Here is the input.
Amino acid sequence: MDNIVKVGLLGLGTVGSGVFKTLSNFDNVEVTKISVSNINKKRNIEGLSQEILTTDSMSIVNNSDIDIIVEVIGGINPAFDLITTAIKNKKHIVTANKELIAKHGEEIFELAKKFNVSVLYEAAVAGGIPIIMPIKMALAGNKISKIAGILNGTTNFILTKMTNEKADFEPILKEAQELGYAEADPTGDIQGYDAAYKIAILASLAFGKRIDSSLIYREGIDNISAVDIEYADDMGYKIKLIALAQITENDKVDVRVHPMFVSKKLPIAYIDGVLNAIYLKGHPVGEVMFSGPGAGEFPTASSVVGDILALAEEIPYTDNPLPMLKCKHEEKAEQLDIKHTENKYYIRVSAQNTPGVIGDLGCICGRNKINLSSIFQKGILADGSARVVLLTEPSKEEAVQKAVEEMNAHSQVKQVMNVIRVMD
Here is the structure.
């Protein structure tokens, strides 16, 4: 065929293997070169010729016969140098690299504009869930005001297991590692870095402004206990790690990642296990939610291959493929500091079981202009201390932080054990 589009694949790990296997079903695309770290590694991939493997990634991005560079190696180095070199060689890019796009998207998109190439990254957010192309095309007529997502399968698996088994964090993390759902070093997942990169990308697309990922407030799930899970359930909530982005009344952008009490009245509360979900609110569409597998060999390959085929359909016929999918915004968003946000809060306190403690906690909230929707004591522990739970009305983050400091300084309070924001 005269119109076969040639692909150079950087990486042949889990996702790269899925991409190669899936592309074998299409006759208008040919993978001509693949870079690997170990050329002698045994790979059980049907149709893979050793002749197309190389350890020299730069030779692929400099190969004049290749039309599309597909990057699935992850991380910043050497991915950034490889992609920018490929763009300068006027090659179109497909990548699954959320960290790279979140941190260096501005440089990459400006370079792509200069050399008139396309950079597609559907797989960088939520694996197999189509969301980037829908935002750019099907939802292009909307003014999107809010995104709330479960964007990390590892943390969602852990929180789901904690809920189902009424277990604490550490043993479930260990089980997730043994099952292969969590890395040996799970920091990127459980501390919210992965979700922060993804919400940075989604917020930038949805709001048409560049988001600084380093300014995103980020809080992980390692402080969530079985006690918090139990109280959440009793009050009609489930705990999820939520990536949130919303436009404020004064046109600032509130972008953050942290655990939340999510009301069981909301569909996103029932996204369990390793699944991901993305809720969008916009006008005129109203509210929509996308859900599905957020990672894995074939779900992620599905998004990568979709981008490749979208380009392959146009490359033979135009010098400007998929113009609607190119980055057009240049304005930097004014991002809201977490202390200026307003939320409902769950506050769990360990205190001495003495008369007046609950009243004192209520007074502290009152002095900081925090209205309470409920305050109650949940039994007496073996050491004689009491668990006191407070649930607030919408309150300023700065005021809640000040109230927590006062509570911790109170002579009858052992410790404020947890503060979790609430989504109703």
